[in-house]
Write a structure and sequence with these properties.
Length: about 400
């Protein structure tokens, strides 16, 4: 029977990592997948995570199943980070959170909840967006539509295109926003634009959804929640898929969350019962390790302060690489203006390199970049930046 099966195309991001692993050239550089590298080129286990894990090993008494929605203390941590410590949404019990296997797992839960429980079947995503969004939502049974986002000439947000394409979004349609550090462009709306979008969403009756995978990588955990919190002020219902893969460096522990905000506590509980059915039919209940680690850190003031300091270290190092990258390209006589890279947020830069240039970088220089031209700046170090800039200067 299997002879009828045809091969699937390689994943645009993780497929690149597979190809990178197989590449035997010792000078190879992987700027494909969004993974933080320190100055030594390692993806470290955060110090606060190591401490929390030691405590967990000491204190853990069972490996019993978690509940369908996961660890309660973890859900509380997620909500405080999303909405703020003293948010009324939390006090009024309008939010329910399910621990999820990574941000991707949370997106899939959201997709199935929309497809099965809501009157709409349509989700609007930005063009461009994370390469997996369309696949996740289509697999959940949704129709995916795109709104304009990026002005390739200005290398900036095309806010007018965004507004004009969203004129076609109907009341009840789901509109997906990136909480911060838009993937792949690194360009976020300004505070004023967030305010405008939040009010527009309420006026139009959209159901806003946030993919929030990089909280803390733009300016800080509180600052980066500005857009989401503006939406929460004006919109009675919200869906959020969040992740601690990046900001806690817990990539392979799959630590994400699906959060639903409803009009009131009753409605939140009723909707959440359907979310639990979706989870039960998918993976039954979540794994515990990473979520336990996050809950330990967030509930210990000293570890929490350590985490914030380590997150700031990661954020500052990426910012330093952005500035250096722009300088080094200019010093190689590249006359194209790359200064926009220093203004973008988070792990990624949308470089403007063409598919052909990206191919040449891989074939001739062993430099791996996503086909869209997205560069993971988080993978640039002082040790690889010269080779990287030499390669880019050559293909330009
Ligand atoms: C990325 O965009 O590189 C990350 O979100 C990792 C992934 O799963 O694609």
């Amino acid at each position: 029977m299997f002879e009828k099966v045809t091969a699937a195309p390689a994943d645009p991001i993780l497929g690149l990592t597979d190809a990178f692993r197989k590449d035997t050239r010792t000078h190879k550089i992987n700027l494909g997948v969004g993974i933080y590298k320190d100055e030594a080129g390692q993806t470290p286990v955060l110090r606060c995570v190591k401490k929390a894990e030691a405590r967990l090993v000491q204190e853990q008494t069972t490996k019993n199943y978690l509940s369908i929605e996961g660890i309660e203390a973890y859900g509380q941590v997620v909500q405080k980070l999303l909405f703020g410590e003293d948010a009324a949404i939390i006090a009024n019990k309008r939010a329910r959170t399910a621990q999820a296997p990574g941000g991707t797992g949370a997106l899939r839960i959201a997709g199935e909840f929309i497809a099965r429980q809501l009157d709409t079947n349509t989700i609007w995503i930005s063009n461009p967006t994370w390469a997996n969004h369309r696949a996740v939502f289509t697999a959940a049974g949704l129709e995916v539509k795109e709104y304009g986002y990026y002005n390739a000439d200005a290398k900036d947000l095309d806010f007018n295109a965004m507004l004009s394409s969203l004129e076609d979004a109907k009341a009840g349609d789901v509109v997906l926003f990136h909480g911060c550090c838009h993937n792949p462009t690194g360009i976020d709306p300004t505070a004023e634009q967030w305010q405008q979008l939040a009010k527009l969403s309420a006026d139009k009756g959209w159901l806003p959804m946030f993919d929030f995978a990089y909280q803390g990588f733009a300016q800080g955990t509180e600052e980066d929640a500005f857009g989401l919190r503006e939406f929460a002020k004006h919109n009675p219902e919200l869906l959020i898929a969040s992740s601690f893969s990046k900001n806690f460096g817990l990539y392979n522990e799959r630590v994400g969350a699906f959060t639903l905000v409803a009009n009131d506590e009753d409605s939140a509980n009723t909707s959440f019962s359907q979310v639990k059915s979706i989870i039960r039919a998918n993976y039954s209940n979540p794994p515990s390790h990473g979520a336990n680690v996050v809950a330990i850190i967030a509930n210990d003031p000293e570890l929490y302060a350590d985490w914030q300091a380590e997150l700031a270290e990661m954020r500052d190092r990426i910012q330093e690489m952005r500035t250096l990258f722009v300088e080094k390209l200019a010093s190689r006589g590249v006359n194209q203006d790359f200064s926009f890279i220093a203004r973008q947020n988070g792990m990624f830069s949308f470089s403007g390199l063409s598919k052909e240039q990206v191919e040449r970088l891989k074939d001739e220089f062993a430099i791996y970049i996503v086909g869209s031209g997205r560069i993971s700046v988080a993978g640039i170090t002082k040790a690889n930046i010269d080779a990287l800039c030499d390669g880019i200067a050559a293909v330009l």
